[in-house]
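stage 2 :: seqdesign
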């Protein structure tokens, strides 16, 4: 018979279910309660911890990071209000800063809506020629299943982030893409330090000299875009900003590869016609606007 002083055989000492083992780490920090969102735990209403550390290096903007960008992990994002509602996404104004430090930066948070709440109905014509590495994802998006529609929302955000990263590095006038995380895209805020957003081109009334300057900037940007093999895909006076005399292109989730997309030439011509009509209606010479489609086709080396 075993000695009464010998301990009975039980669970292994380091079994995950052993309560004596779970109590050993006295210095482990307490976790927030499960019902609280980790992004907002301990913060005032409307704030969240910076999501910078949640994105991978490939989900962050091109290096070197701009000097104005706050990348500290202790930073807090404070939502200041909505900037714009759109067909497929809403844009919010955020202030990112570290508590106790006197400087901060303003960001535009573009949040793509879930599939059932989006109003953008022309996915297929823009998605032609686009593929992702996972064939199952391609099949799901093509079938427009519930999972496929959710994947398309993520694809829009990822596509816009990738396009902005490439165009920013090429020197085109686009906002700096800060990061992408799921269906949220964080961008450089184009506007004033007090949070006043730059007006869209359609909201401006430029004089003759400014009109000519804006047209020259636009033609240069579109030619460079065409040389890279792209068309904006949905260009108009409503997705061009004017900030202190500088023209900035925005809203590029549907950017079109004019070679891979069978309708690439059509998108290129439509972009040129849309902006050409706006400038012509405000006094720019009709001959200049009429030449733009052919000029872009040559730059893209289309037949």
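stage 2 :: out
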């Amino acid at each position: 018979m075993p000695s009464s002083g010998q301990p009975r055989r039980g669970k292994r000492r380091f079994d995950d279910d052993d309560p004596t083992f779970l109590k050993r780490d006295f210095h482990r920090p307490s976790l927030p309660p499960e019902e609280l969102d980790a992004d907002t735990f301990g913060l005032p209403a409307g704030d969240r911890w910076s999501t910078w550390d949640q994105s991978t290096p490939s989900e962050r903007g091109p290096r070197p990071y701009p000097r104005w960008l706050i990348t500290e992990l202790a930073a807090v994002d404070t939502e200041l209000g909505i900037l714009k509602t759109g067909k497929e996404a809403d844009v919010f104004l955020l202030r990112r800063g570290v508590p106790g430090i006197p400087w901060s930066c303003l960001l535009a948070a573009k949040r793509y809506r879930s599939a059932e709440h989006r109003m953008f109905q022309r996915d297929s014509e823009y998605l032609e020629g686009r593929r992702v590495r996972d064939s199952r994802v391609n099949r799901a998006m093509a079938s427009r299943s519930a999972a496929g529609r959710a994947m398309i929302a993520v694809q829009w955000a990822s596509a816009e982030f990738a396009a902005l990263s490439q165009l920013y590095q090429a020197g085109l006038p686009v906002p700096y893409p800060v990061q992408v995380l799921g269906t949220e895209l964080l961008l450089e805020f184009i506007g004033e330090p007090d949070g006043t957003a730059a007006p869209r081109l359609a909201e401006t009334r430029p004089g003759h000299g400014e009109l000519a300057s804006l047209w020259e900037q636009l033609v240069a940007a579109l030619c460079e875009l065409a040389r890279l093999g792209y068309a904006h895909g949905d260009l108009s006076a409503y997705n061009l900003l004017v900030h202190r005399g500088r023209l900035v292109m925005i809203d590029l989730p549907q950017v079109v590869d004019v070679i891979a997309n069978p309708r690439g030439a059509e998108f290129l011509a439509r972009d040129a016609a849309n902006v050409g009509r706006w400038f012509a209606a405000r006094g720019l010479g009709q001959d200049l606007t009429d030449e733009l489609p052919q000029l872009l086709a040559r730059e893209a080396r289309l037949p």
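stage 3 :: structure notes
- The helical segments are 19-22, 123-127, 135-143, 146-169, 208-227, 264-281, 286-299.
- Residues 43 and 49 are 8 Å apart (CA to CA).
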